[in-house]
Amino acid sequence: MKNILAVGTYIQPDDELIINDLETLHVISDPLRLRLLAAIIDRPKPIKQIAAELEIDQIKLYYHFKMMEKHGLVKIVEERVISGIVEKVYRARARTLHVAEGLLSITGTSGESADSMLTYVFDKARSKLKKGIDEGSLVTDRTAPPQKRFIAERGSKRLPPEQARQFFSRLETLTDEFFSSQEGQPAYGDWYDLVTAMYPVKVAGSK
Q1: How many CB atoms lie within 10 A of CB 129?
Q2: Domains in the chain and their CATH numbers?
Q3: What digits encode the pLDDT tens for the residues 155-193?
Q4: How many Å apart are CA 128 and CA 133, to the nearest integer?
Q5: Residue 147: strand, helix, or coil
Q6: Full-prediction pTM beyond 0.85?
């Protein structure tokens, strides 16, 4: 089989990739896939090497790479035959990933698009929280360390217009900080999900 790239050739990843559909966002929201991408940003590698570096069974990685390739998150830069077996060498498509502005917003979208967005955000959060609670890895105890805590509350409150504006602004600042560029982040630490939702509601009997 002919190599896709000549020996010694290495095409650098793009600076950034804009994610503009919910399906791709769903694919990359898996922490393991983010680890896999981080492993092949600086240098292309075959799955066997990646599995050894991350100490993960390589059989488990084929599905993840297939999904990431399908959605344009990784590229095959070389194919070589070793002992009669085709080995593919992957690299990350881009150094940083950004979610398209408005992708997770229902403003200006159709009812079907809004439903897809809400399903993605809240069903995904629900399934991850339930899994963590069932496994005992998540607790609501405020004295627990961040690695085990989760915050999930819901309530309604009457706010004057200016107070509501200030609260929205503070919430948006925190959200923007959390979802800012991945560039420069440490190569260690725990993964966290963040889901935010604040919206006006119509309460029966209210003016």
Answers
A1: 15
A2: 14-98 (1.10.10.10)
A3: 888 899 999 999 999 998 988 888 765 555 566 778 788
A4: 9
A5: coil
A6: no
